[in-house]
């Protein structure tokens, strides 16, 4: 962390892997790395040095060689494109939570925090990193659910949260449909595709952005239901078949709604008589 002010505002790639750094992730630095906040570059350029010997401006381009662990494999760059933005802080002893300030780096393409002692929940604000192509959070101590918001990362080609303490249903659809079981192995509490372990009855995807108690939020997952059949005859629910089981709250809402409809029907019949 810089002690005063902001440092390295033009930084686009930081690779401190396989060192002996410890402590928390540099949350204040994430606010300072302005170059990583830029999503689009006007034209493709490569990193270069600008020299001014004898007061004369001279631009010299150097062929920097960079090797990075991207998308699960080592990739070599003979030249470094200045649109590339990555944070590689793997194989260290960083602890604590992922700070929310990292979500400001919207130009970030690679985030590798593999093999640390990070803990807490995976923050849903990582879903704001819409340019992200590779996310490696494996071999840490993360707990809780995988945020549903990560499904919206449409450029995400590599995802690894193996060997943590994650629980619940794995988000489904979009890029998550392309990840195999190795992305999720080592989390005994996870269930659902692509793992062979099914979820227990009543397990349903969570979405922190839902408004509790609203009818819209109760049925926001309707696109994932295979069949919805609600029959009503003589005041009884004739059938209810879903692609996944209703939670107790949703069933209660349906029965309450049907009860109100039944009472209204009875009142109309009495008026006619």
Automatic annotation (TrEMBL):
Subcellular location: Cell membrane
Family the entry assigns: Belongs to the RLP family.
Membrane topology: Single-pass type I membrane protein
Spans through the membrane: 229-255
Keyword Glycoprotein attributed: yes
InterPro entries, alphabetized: Leu-rich_rpt (IPR001611), Leu-rich_rpt_typical-subtyp (IPR003591), LRR_dom_sf (IPR032675)
Primary localisation category: membrane
KW Nucleotide-binding (keyword) present: no
This protein's name: Leucine-rich repeat-containing N-terminal plant-type domain-containing protein
Keywords of the record: Cell membrane, Glycoprotein, Leucine-rich repeat, Membrane, Receptor, Repeat, Transmembrane, Transmembrane helix
Xref: SUPFAM superfamilies: L domain-like
GO CC annotations, alphabetized: plasma membrane
SMART domains for this protein: LRR_TYP
Source organism, top-level taxon: Eukaryota
Source organism: Citrus sinensis (Sweet orange)
Residue ranges, annotated region (Disordered): 197-216
């Amino acid at each position: 962390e810089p002690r005063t002010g902001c440092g390295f505002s033009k930084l686009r790639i930081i690779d401190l892997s396989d060192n002996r750094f410890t402590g928390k992730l540099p949350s204040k630095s994430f606010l300072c790395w302005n170059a990583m906040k830029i999503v689009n570059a006007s034209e493709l350029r490569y990193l270069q040095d600008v020299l001014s010997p004898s007061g004369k401006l001279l631009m010299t381009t150097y062929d920097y060689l960079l090797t990075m662990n991207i998308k699960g494999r080592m990739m070599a760059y003979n030249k470094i494109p200045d649109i590339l933005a990555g944070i590689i802080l793997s194989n260290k002893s960083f602890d604590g939570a992922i700070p929310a300030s990292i979500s400001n780096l919207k130009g970030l393409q690679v985030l590798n925090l593999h093999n640390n002692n990070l803990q807490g929940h995976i923050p849903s604000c990582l879903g704001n990193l819409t340019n992200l192509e590779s996310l490696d959070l494996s071999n840490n101590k993360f707990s809780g659910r995988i945020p549903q918001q990560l499904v919206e990362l449409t450029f995400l080609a590599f995802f690894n949260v193996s060997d943590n303490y994650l629980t619940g249903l794995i988000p489904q659809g979009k890029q998550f449909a392309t990840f195999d079981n190795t992305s999720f192995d080592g989390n005994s509490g996870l269930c659902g595709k692509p793992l062979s372990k099914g979820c227990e009855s009543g397990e349903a995807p969570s979405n922190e952005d839902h408004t509790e108690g609203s009818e819209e939020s109760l049925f926001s997952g309707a696109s994932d239901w295979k069949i919805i059949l609600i029959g009503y005859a003589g005041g009884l629910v004739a059938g209810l078949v879903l692609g996944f089981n209703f939670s107790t709250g949703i069933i209660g809402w349906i029965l309450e709604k049907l009860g109100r409809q039944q009472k209204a029907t009875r009142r109309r019949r009495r008026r006619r008589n």
